[in-house]
Every structure is written in structure tokens, then in C-alpha cells.
Write a structure and sequence with these properties.
It is built from six helices and 14 strands. The chain is an alpha+beta fold. Strand 2, helix 1 and strand 3 form a beta-alpha-beta unit. The protein is globular. The structure holds biotin (BTN).
Length: 264
């Protein structure tokens, strides 16, 4: 089936990301599109106004009303073998955080392991990194990003109580294209830096933007819920929890922050 799209010729001065953006009014999933058999150049960006089967982490769905949020994915197939895969997740979270700084005061923004961006403790952005492999080798990476921009509180009240949008957090409507440009510039800059410097720099930035290190948290790995102190991030991007006098490392889980007066 041929899917209809338009090309947005952005004026972004990017080095790795393509300046032409593939724009769908509706598609099943921008991640799925880039993972399927198209020959995309490195740095291809695909944007959709609506996704009929948006994918979230841990087999969840990602939904948003038409043209109220940013739903986009980035394709990378160059210089991806030299750095650990998990660094792309941290890099993207750091980039979205930095890309939102022109719109949101820094003290309202936070990163939450593994890849959420929060405003005032509520999720504003989710990131899903997927890979294409052959013979046990990663050939390409697709970074999917969903940023809640102009959805109103009614949308979140229905089922997404721990989520927010830029509009809900500030009372202002935003131009999706302005937010997209800012985030893409930030991703491009951080991708360049990842090639030129050591990837642990990304992790250090991530830790600086995560206020929950050292805090009491709950970790839900789908089988058990553990409570303990968020000690650190491991060498391969896992969360180190100090619990019951031992350290336990998680690679896929959901966390919530335990406050004096309840959970985050
Ligand atoms: C999460 O569960 O937090 C990750 C959500 C990622 C959603 C984005 S929206 C654009 C891209 N296409 C998808 O199908 N998913 C990602």
C-alpha cells in the first residue's frame, strides 16, 4: 500500500538530521514506518499528525488526538555501532529536556529513568528506541518520540492521570513546529557530540537532569514491586536500586518516586 505524505522543507541547520521532514497526516506508527523496508538516508525524520497504532514502551499504546502533539521518529544507520545502544535513549531524553528549555522553566523539567521527560512530575514526553538487526548486528536505530503539546486536561483526566502537556502545564498553546524545531536542533547537537566525545558525557548530563537519584523509589518490573534508594545508573544503562541491603539492577521496569505524602 502506498502511503501519502508531504515533505516539509525545514530551514533547520542540522548536520546529522535531514532538513526535509516526511509528514503524514495519519499513519499507523512512525516507528513502524521507519523500521519497515524503506531505504532511508541516515537522519531521516518522519512526523505524523495522528497515529492509528502508536507504540509505547513495554507493548503499551501511545495515543493522542489529531495534530495536538508531536509524534515523530528518527532513523539512524551511521556511526551507531561505536556507542552502546542505551546511550541513544539517554541522549534523546537529554535532548528533549534541552529542546523544551525555551518553553518551560528548567526547574519544572525533570528526567525519569529510563526515558521519560516530566513537567512538574508529570510525563510530557515518551521515547521508544527500536532497532533493526541482522546476524545479531544492529543495522539501524529508530528513535520514536511523543511530546504532548496542546492536549487539554480532559484528555489526560480520562486515563492518563500521570501525564501532562505543555498547554496543561503553562496555560499557553504552542506551535508544534517551533517545539519540533527546537527539539530536533537539540538532538542533532547531542548526536554530533556523541560522535566526538565519550558517550558517558550523555549519561552525566542525564544524571544532572534527573532529580530522583538518591531518592526513595518504587520499581515495578511486572513481576514484583521493589522499594529502595535510586543509587545510580549502571555501566549499561540499568537502574541501580539499593534494596534490602543489596544492590539490584533493572533494565526494563517502571519507577515511581515515593514522596513523604505518597507516590509521585
Ligand atoms: C513510551 O511508552 O513512553 C514511549 C512512547 C513513544 C511514542 C512515540 S510517538 C512517535 C513514535 N511512533 C510510535 O509508534 N511510538 C513513538
Amino acid at each position: 500500500m502506498f502511503l501519502k505524505y508531504k515533505i516539509i522543507k525545514s530551514k533547520l541547520k542540522t548536520t546529522i538530521l535531514q532538513s526535509e521532514i516526511i509528514h503524514f497526516k495519519s499513519i499507523d506508527s512512525t516507528n513502524k514506518y521507519l523500521l519497515s523496508k524503506h531505504n532511508h538516508p541516515n537522519g531521516t525524520v518522519v512526523l505524523a499528525d495522528f497515529q492509528t497504532a502508536g507504540r509505547g514502551r513495554r507493548q503499551r499504546i501511545w495515543q493522542s488526538p489529531e495534530a495536538e502533539s508531536l509524534l515523530f521518529s528518527i532513523f539512524l544507520n551511521e556511526n551507531i555501532q561505536t556507542v552502546p545502544l542505551y546511550s541513544f535513549t539517554f541522549l534523546t531524553a537529554v535532548s528533549v529536556y534541552e529542546g523544551l528549555l525555551p518553553f518551560i522553566p528548567q526547574n519544572h523539567l525533570a528526567l525519569k529513568w529510563p526515558n521519560d521527560v516530566l513537567i512538574n512530575g508529570k510525563k510530557v514526553c515518551g521515547i521508544l528506541v527500536e532497532t533493526k538487526t541482522s546476524s545479531n548486528r544492529t543495522n539501524s536505530i529508530v528513535i520514536g518520540i511523543g511530546i504532548n503539546v496542546n492536549q487539554d486536561s480532559a484528555f489526560f483526566q480520562r486515563e492518563l492521570k500521570q501525564a501532562t502537556s505543555l498547554f496543561c502545564s503553562t496555560g499557553c498553546k504552542f506551535s508544534r513546529m517551533e517545539v519540533l524545531s527546537s527539539v530536533l536542533i537539540s538532538i542533532d547537537k547531542n548526536l554530533m557530540e556523541l560522535q566526538q566525545r565519550v558517550y558517558t558525557d550523555v549519561l552525566e548530563k542525564w544524571k544532572n537532569y534527573c532529580p530522583y537519584l538518591g531518592e526513595k523509589i518504587k520499581v515495578d518490573d511486572d513481576k514484583n514491586i521493589y522499594e529502595g534508594i535510586f543509587k545510580d545508573i549502571s555501566q549499561n544503562g540499568g537502574l541501580i536500586l539499593e534494596t534490602g541491603g543489596k544492590e539490584k539492577i533493572f533494565h526494563a521496569a517502571d519507577i515511581s518516586i515515593v514522596k513523604e505524602n505518597g507516590n509521585l
